[in-house]
Structure formats: structure tokens, C-alpha cells
From TrEMBL:
SUPFAM superfamilies: Periplasmic binding protein-like II. Pfam families: SBP_bac_8. This is Extracellular solute-binding protein. PROSITE patterns: TAT. It comes from the Bacteria. Gene3D superfamilies: Periplasmic binding protein-like II (3.40.190.10). InterPro entries: SBP, TAT_signal. Transmembrane segments: none annotated.
Amino acid sequence: MTPNAASASSGPSRRSFLASTAVATAAVAGGMPLLAACGGGNEGQKEGATSGKEAAKILPAYVASQVVTPDIPSKNGSPVGFTKAIPAAELKTSVSQKLGSGGKLTIMAPYWGAPPKGDNPYYSAMNKAVGVDITWQNQDGVTYDQKLGAILASSDIPDAVVVPDWNLTGRIPTAINAKFADLGPYLSGDKVKDYPNLAAVPTDAWQRGIFGGQLRAIPMPNSYVTGMAAMYRKDIFEKRGYALPKSPDEFLSWAKEATQAKSKVWACDDMKWSALQIFGVQPGGDKALWWNLEDGKLVNRIETEQYLEALEWTRKLYAAKVVHPDAVSGKAGGSAANRFTAGQVLVYNNNISDWWGKTAEQRTQNPDFEMGVFDIFGPDGGDPTLWAGQPGGMFSFISKKASKQQIKDFLALCNYCAAPYGTKEFMLTAYGVEGTDYTVKKGLPTKTQQGINEVSSTYDLTGNPAPYVAYPDFPDITRGIVEWQQRMGAFTKKSSFYGLTVTEPNRWANLADDFEQLEDDVIRGRKKISDVQQAVSDWKKKGGDDLRDWYKKLLDDNGSSN
């Protein structure tokens, strides 16, 4: 077993989210600016965004970590890379003294799988190291939005709560502003230097932690360069003599040639995510990124020709019957990767960390298994136009009812868990207790079954270092991922609301919720492109144009963050 290979079914964590990972396979889920321009002082602000001079007053100072030097530096917004495991004797120390007071905190977080018992060795070791007695209220990650909404609507919330960015929908952002504490008095400016690992979190990620005009969240930093990639069976391509397609037309022609339905081989799985990249459409997920200022006018991605072209090209793939039948029937989700490893599809798109995850999984039974990753091409086969994703994607908050000491204990926890790769704190957070949660084999830490069951989706969600990739068992894949993101970063632009956390007015918060289902219906031939055009027209009339004016005023009053 390679390190953590068996954790592939677990949910997102800092080690498995948006290619900023070190020790677990990513599970891709789903997927805002804040100032007083939209109403009152910071304390009562319910909607809007904060950027520019107002954000500068709030944001923590940035002090890059010098504790460990990566093997591959960041370039064009990419994460850094570590290609080697660090022997225990060479691990650095990033938390020189225990910052926790010995107090108690209850934390609610999403969990994918069966939560472990609360008195397990990992939890005990972490609590002792941090100096805080933490009780975890683990909730089903699949239905977490429902539990989160109910908790935030009540008067009794845990001391701290973890919120993924894909759950920032409906009334949840407004509830966050009302329920959680301002961390500015503890972290703004040079105050963050009391927590060196948090001081090394990039400023762009901290900008995402501003909700309702206050610094309320500890963010999970992400590389803004896309982590969504089209991966292909390199071993099969080489065996059959296939050349990599370099344009949408070439891909369709190749797909028709490669599909052998009678032999149960199809060229690809659902390729919508890649299509949106190829045709230069702004990213999904955070709806603030759907807007961009073009020639003085704010344009939403659903209004662009590129959006329709991406859907039309994907529709052509389905119409040509080169897409696996399970994807046609809507079973695209996590099973796409299984169809890929089974050789039933030759190309699929997912988080690029799957390059490691599926290779680690398959090499144990098929030593010849090999994957590759397409460089994204443009609609004419030239350079693509790519758009930056948000630089922070999961948030940890502490209740307004928390005492001053509880807030400091919460920050002590987050600082410990934000330790960089190559440190003692990282090893404990990521792997647990040596001999119990993991062993070292051939120089590589390898989780035991107990570690697989217990070391996940808790502490690693509360604090995170700057984006990195570290797969020491497959150093070539580490280098391949980082270098791919370096190349793609050269073509990446930041849209008008990049890096900002926007709380939209409740009356428009769900205005565009039906578009994802409509997209899927169109590409599968159940509806037409004209249906999208009609939906856009309806969207404008129902509030889209008003929402445009609201966003434009936000931009005029506050400016962009980039």
C-alpha cells in the first residue's frame, strides 16, 4: 500500500483538495467582495464585499515561512512541490511552544465516511500537542449543507464550525456574519506574527476570510491555477499509437476513432468541465467569479458565446456516442475514475490530484498502469484563456459567544495545523501517531488501517499551509502536477471579483441555481442550446440585470482585489 492510497474515498481535506495536497486523493465537491458600501457599519453588514484600503486595515501581515525549502518553487501561481519524504530525524519544528491553554473546544466539521471514536490515539495526541481539549462533532459531508443550515438557524451552535465554500449558498453567508466572531483583533496586521504558521498563509487566501466586513475565517489556501484537468491513459495511448489531440476538432476526430463500443471502450467520460476551460469560460462554483468587467460592462458567464460554444462541443461528443453510457445516463460522479482505471474510458476530467491517487491505487495490481495529463488548448488549438479560481476554499469559524481565551485556543489549533510539509507538526496532523496510525516503509510514511480510519477530515480542516504538492512515493507525478500548473498558470487571468467573498442579497442568492442541471440536459441532448438562451433571458428579467447593477456598484465603490 502506498501512503494513504486507501483514503481515496474520503472527502476533501487540505491534503486532498484542489491539488494543494500531500497525502490523500482529492474528492472534488461541487464547485464572494465585503464592504460597508452595501449597508451600515461592519458589525451589521449583511451583504457586499470588502477590498482595497478597507481590506488592508483588516488583513494579516504576510511573513513567508522559511522553515522548509521546497524542491520545486512556485511559478505563475502554482503550488510548491516536495518530491522527497523527510526522515523523522530531519523534521523541522514550526511551533516552538505550546500555545493552547488547556481549555476545551467543540468543533463541527464535515466528515466523509464513518467517524472514529472520540478517544482515539490520534485525537489524544493532537490535543496534547496543541494544548487544547477538542471534541469533534463530525457530520456527514454529503448532507453537510442541511445540517449546517439548521445549526446556523438555531441559537445553540458549537464553539467552532468548518464551512466548505460550496456550502456558501442561500442564507448561510448571512448567518455566518451574524454568528461568528471577528478575528481581526487577534490577527490583523502584525498581530498574526504571534501565530507564525498563520502568518505564512498568502494574503489572497486571507482576503477570502473576510465576511461581512470582518476577518471571521481561517481559510484553506488554494492555488488559484486550475486543478481541474483532463487525464488520459498514457499506457493505452502509447500502445495504440494515439497522438494527443491539440484542438476541439482533433479531440472529436480522435474520439470517434478510439471508441470501440462493442469492446466496451469509449474515448471519454463527461467532459463538460474541460470544455468550459477550452472555450475560456469563467469557472463555476463561486458565483462571484461568474462576473467579469468587459469594456466597461459587467458580463456574466452564462451570457457569453464561449459558454454556449462549450456546451455545444460537449453535446457533439455525446451525440457522436464517444462518451461512456453511464455518463450519458448521468452517472458521471466518482465512478468516472473507476471507468477510467478499468480501461472503459481513455480520458476523463477530475482534480489533478487523481493523477497520484489512481496511479498509487492501480500500481499495486498493474505495474504498467500509467496516466498523463493534457495541456489545455484553446478553441482554435492555440493558447487557452484560463480563469483563476478562488485562492481559499474551506473556512473555519469560531462563535461570537466564545470567550477571549477560547478564541486564542482556536488560533493555537489553527496555527499548529497550518504547519508546512517537512515539520513535526505536519507529520502529526497529516499522519497521526507513528506505530499506531502509520509506519515507515522504505523511507515512506504509510498509514495503517487505523490511521486510514481516524486521521481524516478533522484537524486538517482547521489550519493549512500555503499551497503545495507532496507525493514522495511518486516524485515524477509531484513534479508533473506542479509543472502542469506552472504552464497553465501562464495563461490564467483573474476576473473582477477574484479573491473576494461576496454575500449576495438573499432575494437573488438562488437566481442561477438551475443552470447546472440545464447544462447537463443540453449536453446530453435532452434540451437545446435555445433553451439555455431562453433561460438567460428569463434570468435577466427575474433579477439578473438588477444583480448586475448591484455587482457593478460593488465594484465601483470598493474596487477589485487584484
